[in-house]
Amino acid sequence: MAARTNRALWQDTFGVPGVVRESPLPTNDDLGDHKVLVKVHAWAINPCDYMLQDRNMGSSYPVILGCDVAGTVEAVVPGSTAASQFRVGDRVFGFTANSGFQDYVALEDKLMTKIPGDMAYREPVVLGLCSATAAMFLFGEDYLHLDYPKLGARKKGKSVLIWGGSSAVGSNAIQLVIAAGYDAIATCSKNNFDYVKGLGAVQVFDYKDPNVTEKVAAELDKGECAGIFMAAGLKNGNVAAWKVAAASKQTLKFASSNFIDNLDDVPKGVDVKQLSPGSFKPFPDCWFETTLVTFGGYLSEALAKGAFKVAPPPLVVNRIGLEGIQEAIDLQRVIAEKGHEGIKEAVNRVKGGMKEDKVSPVKLVVERS
What we know:
This protein is of the alpha/beta class. It has helices spanning 28-31, 47-54, 128-139, 168-179, 193-198, 212-220, 234-247, 285-288, 298-304, 325-338, 340-350; strands at 6-11, 19-23, 35-44, 63-64, 68-76, 91-95, 104-108, 112-114, 158-163, 183-188, 203-206, 224-230, 253-256, 271-272, 314-316, 363-367. The protein folds into 2 domains: 1-127 and 310-369, Medium-chain alcohol dehydrogenases, catalytic domain (Quinone Oxidoreductase, Chain A, domain 1), CATH 3.90.180.10; 132-272, Rossmann fold. 27% of the residues lie in helices and 22% in strands. The strands form 3 sheets. Strands 3, 5, 6, 7, 8, 15 and 16 form a 7-stranded mixed β-sheet that branches. The protein has a 6-stranded parallel β-sheet with strand order 11-10-9-12-13-14.
């Protein structure tokens, strides 16, 4: 049997395409007690991937980007904690803080789980980072600290506002709060109303509506609101979402997936759940608290029972392997720049020039073969 060799998409500096070349193969010493070596069969692209490629983040180049992966377990240290959960041949998905764009990736055992049944790798690979991000901000004790989701949860009679409900993080957040017994209220563009309602949101508002602040606040004040989560929208999204919190008659907790530069900008009366600069828990510790929501609990169970949707659905690019990742990153950049029109352009490129008029959000995926 030939010895394994590894390759990666290397980022030699910012503002240039990645280059595929050899990369060190993780050893048992690298895996230690809590990591598993995974042969990747599918990679998913996140908005942070093109951002990190384009901007000087102060990294010591060259670096390997990428987070979401799905594949098969190739090695685990005998007698390790990881070996009590996974064995060679298991089909798994999970994520890492960068270093994902490789043929072989070392994953933390708490940030991965088995793929249920015969589900194709392209499906669960879209969930990793975004489900974990949503879980951290919704259920983490430093943030909204909502009750955990579970199968068959009873209705609480409380709502949660998801600002940016059609985003990848928002798509997961909507499903998670519903599974925890809350009513999901969401914002998105009009083009995505049907998509967001299909995820279970009871009310959806157009974030571009000039009266959206008053309309959403009035809806939240029809009952008790457990909090607001800004899932997407950068600084503009933060401002719009906390205006809703300020307009509400309730004192609302507010958590954002995007860092708030200046807490003094937040209106009085808004209970911001935001860690101060420099105090953010390092990866992977920041994700461990809520793994019972994701890889170590609810998400795994719900996927196996068909109770959680793979959303946004995967759009698999035509070029395969590591060489296809740059194509997918370029398409992600188009989507970020053009929004709904960018999604249409990406779908048309991938599907050979089909003139699709109405499209829903997608998550770009690259397959090994």
